[in-house]
Amino acid sequence: MNDGTLVDAIIVEQSRGKKRDDGTSTRDPEASFTKKIGQTYHGYKEHIAVGCSTIVTDYRFSDAAPHKYNFIDELTQDEKQMVVADSAYRSEVREAELTSGGVVCAIIFIWKKRAKRTAISVEEAESNDRVGACEGRASLRVDEEHEVSTSAVPRRKQ
Which of 9, 99, 133, 136 has the fewest CB atoms found within 10 Å of its own CB? Predict the structure, then answer.
């Protein structure tokens, strides 16, 4: 990725707390629950935008409940080249808005209906290949999730 912005969200887990003898709880009242691939998490989400140099250019922090697609428009409002994200961010309206502004919409496709494992179409696979989504984005995301969650600047693997 030479120009553009990569957008993703990271779950920041928080203790679910314990009941005290007086009936109150030690649970963080501002954290919330979310599910990812069938597993329940309690905490917050970091919504981040990473530039081509893999430096975080913008972020939003929320409780865990809002879906990550709620933040992509804010995180990419100033982008003029390309927006790269996983398929959770894909919508026809978003794609039309990006392309009408001259921005390349590089939101990847993944297998459809996980339970049935329906393959993506040839056109969708070619779209993924054009933005290097098969390997490049995956390795960048691993760095992004590990290093941003520890408050370090993410670095792209060479």
Answer: 99
What Rg do the C-alpha atoms of the chain give, in angstroms?
Answer: 17
Residue 10's nearest CA partner among 50, 68, 58 is 68
Point out which residues pair with 11 in neighbouring strands.
45
pTM above the 0.85 mark?
no
Structure-block tokens of residue 28: 């963080």
Q: What is the pLDDT of residues 102-130, one digit of tens each?
A: 998 888 766 554 555 566 666 666 666 65
Q: How do the domains of the chain map onto residue ranges? A: 5-149
Nearest CA to 50 among 37, 40, 59? 59
Cα(26)–Cα(42) distance, integer angstroms: 13
Q: How far apart are alpha carbons 67 and 4 in whole angstroms? A: 22
For residues 118-132, b (16+ Cβ closer than 10 Å) or e, as one string? eebeeebeebbeebb
Q: In terms of residues, how long is the chain?
A: 158
